Amino acid sequence: MQRKVIFRGTALPLLLLAPQLAVTAVFFLWPAGVAVYQSVLQQDPWGLRTEFVGLRNFAEVLADPDWRTAAGNTAVFSTAVAGLAMGIALMLAVQADKAIRGARVYRTLLIWPYAVAPAVAAVLWLFLFHPSIGLIGRALNANGFPWDPRLNGNQAMLLVIGAAAWKEVSYNFIFFLAGLQAIPRSVLEAAAIDGARPVRRFWTVVFPLLSPTTFFLLVVNLVYAFFDTFGIIHALTSGGPGNATTTLIYKVYVEGVQNTNLGSSAAQSVILMLLVVTLTMIQFRFIERRVHY
Amino acid sequence: MRAPTEEEDRIAAAAARRRQWRDAALTHAVLLLGVLAVVFPIWIALVGSTHDASTIGRGDVPLLPGDEAVGNYVAALTGTGAGRFRASPAALMLWNSALMALLIACGKIAISLLSAYAIAFFSFPGRMLAFWAIFLTLMLPVEVRIIPTYQVIVDLDLFDSMTGLTVPLMASATATLLFRQFFLTVPDEVVEAAKIDGAGPLRFLRDILLPLSVTNIAALFVILFIYGWNQYLWPLLVVSDRSLETVVVGLTRMIGTGDAQNEWNVIMATAVLALLPPVAVVVAMQRWFVRGLTETEK
Predict the structure, then answer these.
(1) Is A116 on the interface with B (CB under 8 A)?
(2) Is A185 exposed, middle or buried (0-12, 13-18, 19+ CB in 10 A)?
(3) Which of B28, B152, B171 is opposite residue A100, by nearest beta carbon?
(4) Separation of alpha carbons A165 and A88, rounded Å
(5) Mutation to test the A interface, candidates B97, B122, B190, most A Cβ within 10 Å
(6) B132 touches chain A (CB under 8 A)
(7) Are A95 and B27 in contact (CB under 8 A)?
(8) CB contact, 8 Å: A133 with chain B?
(9) What pTM does this model have?
(10) What does B163-203 look like in DSSP terms, one character per residue?
(11) pLDDT over 80 at A258, yes or no
C-alpha cells in the first residue's frame, strides 16, 4: 500500500531510515548470514584450518541423539505450555466476559503477570517448589509424594512447564477477552433465544467465532515456548537433570557458549531460523486472510 | 393453552433467580481460583522477603508476612548479605535495568518512527528493499543467532558496555509496522494542507505527525519498556562486568545451584524489587498496555 500524496526526495528518507537499517544490518542480517555460512564449514579443533563440508553439520546435528532428545523435549514442553496457558486463559476470559460485579478488578489482577520476566517467574516457582524449603515442594514430600526436580527429570519438566504456562496465561487472557468482547451481542442473544444451552452455545457459536484469536495465539504461544522461555529453563533447571529439560534453544546456547562448537551450533541456529520463518509466515498469511474476508 | 397461574409464575421466577445466583457464584469461584493461582507465587515471594533466613532455611515458610522486611530489603539493595552467590547491590542492578529498559524503549520508538515515516511518506528507490530488510528482523530473534551476534559485539569492542547491551536490540519490525499502519490512515488532505502552507517533510513530522502519534507512542512504550526490562539472554551474553549487571540476571545468579542454605529472604526481596517496576508500569498504564499489546500483534 502506498499513499497518494507524498514528499519528494531520496536523501532525506534514506537518512531517516539509516539508524534502523544500520542496526538491522550489523546485528541481525550479518550475524544471520554468518550463521548460515558457518553452518556449512568445519573447523579443526585448533581453529587453524577451516574446510567446506556442505550439509554435513546438519546431518550430524539431525543424527545426534542429544539433539533428538532436545527436539523431543521441545515438542513436549511447547505443546504442554501452549495447551495449558491457552486453555486456562480461555476459561478465565469466558468468565471475566460475563457481566458480573468486580469484573474490572478481576481483569487487572489477571493481567499483570505479563510484566514478570520469565527468569523472575522461574525464581518464584523455585521458591515454591524447592524440595526442602519450598512451601509446595515440602508439602508434597511430607505427604508421601517424593518430590525433587533436581533429581527427577519428569518432575523438572513439570516444573518448567508450570512456570512457563503461569507467566503466559495473562497474555492469552487479554487476547481471548478482546476476542470475546468483539463478538456481537445479537449473535449470542439469537442463540439464546433459539434455546441453546450455555455450554452448547459456547462450543457451537462462541468458540468458532474465536478461532482467529485462537489460531493467532497458538502461533504466538509456540514462539514463546520455543524462544522466550530460555530464562525459565536457565534459571530453574539449567537443562537438567541430565538433559531432561534441555530444549533446542538451550542446546544452541550450551553448544555455542560453553562448548564453542561453531559448525554444529551454527547448523542448529539455522534449523531454528527455518522454524521461526515458517511460524512467522503462517502467522502473516493467516492475518492477511483475516484482513481480506 | 392456559395462561400460567400466578403461583407458577412465582415458582419460575424464583428458579430463574436461583439459577442466576448459582451461575454468578460459579463465575466468581472460577475467577477467584484463577486470581489465586496467578497471585500465589508472588504472595509467597513477598512473604519470604519479610522473614529471616533461618526460618526459610528450616523450610517453615509461613503464609503471612513477618517483621524482617526492612532488614532484608536494605540487605538486598546494598548487597550486604553474607550469601555465597553474592550479586551486585540491587540498587545498582535496578538502575542498570531501568537505564537499559528506557534506552531500548526510547531507541526502538525513535528509530521505528523515523523509518516508518520514510517508508510511508516518501517514494524513493530501495523503499521496498528497506521495508523487507526491516521485516526480516521479525524472523531473527537473538536466540537463533546467539554466537555470530556475540562475535559482532566483540569485534566492535562493545562487550561490557551499555551501548552493546541496548543498541543491538533497538531494531524493531513490529514498532515500524505499527507506525506505518497508523501513518497510512492519516488523510491525504492533512498532508496536502501542510504542503500548501509551506511545511517541509521534517516540519510536518514534528508539528503534525508526532502530536497525532502520542497515543501509539504511549502504548508502545509500555510494551517495549517491559520487553527491555525483562531481557535475559542478551545481558547474560554481552555483560560480564558486575557494575553493568541487570537485576533479572543478577537475581538468577544469586540462586547459584538453588541450595537450601541460600539467603532466600534476601533473594526474594530482590525478586520483588525486580518485578515491581514492570508490574507497576502495566498497572498504572493498563489502558495503554492492552491497546499496545493488541495493536502491535495485529
Answers:
(1) yes
(2) exposed
(3) B28
(4) 9
(5) B122
(6) no
(7) yes
(8) yes
(9) 0.88
(10) HHHHGGG---HHHHHHHHHHHTTS-HHHHHHHHHTT--HHH
(11) no
Domain count, chain B: 1
| Pairwise CA distance, residues B257 & A135, whole Å | 19
What Å distances lie between residue A185 and A115, A175, A197, B23, CA to CA? 32, 18, 16, 19
Which of A12, A14, A20 is opposite residue B171, by nearest beta carbon?
A: A20
B158 shares contact with chain A (CB less than 8 Å): no
Query: Which residue segment(s) compose the domain that B228 sits in?
Result: 90-296
The complex scores an ipTM of 0.86
| Closest CA of chain A from B2, distance in Å | 22
Kindly state the percentage of chain A with pLDDT values over 70. Answer: 94
- What residue of A is the nearest CA neighbor of B60? A133
| Mutation for testing the B interface, residue in A29, A106, A120, A270 having most B CBs under 10 Å | A120
Residues A203-217: pLDDT tens digits? 888 888 888 888 888
Given a cut of 50, is residue B287 above it in pLDDT?
A: yes
pLDDT per residue over B70-90, tens digit each? 888 888 888 776 555 566 788
Cell 569492542 belongs to B157
**Which member of B145, B184, B271 has the closest CB to residue A124?**
B271
Cα–Cα dist B119/B138, whole Å: 17
- The CATH number for B144's domain is 1.10.3720.10
**What is the dihedral sign for C-alpha A278, A182, B281, B38?**
negative
Residues 6+ away with beta carbon under 8 Å from B186 = B209, B212
DSSP B45-89: HHHHTTS-HHHHHTT---SS--S-HHHHHHHHHHT----TT--S-
What is the Cα–Cα distance from B175 to B297, expressed in whole angstroms? Answer: 10
Domains and CATH numbers, chain A: 66-292 (1.10.3720.10)
Q: Is residue B71 part of a domain?
A: no
Cell 472460577 belongs to: B30
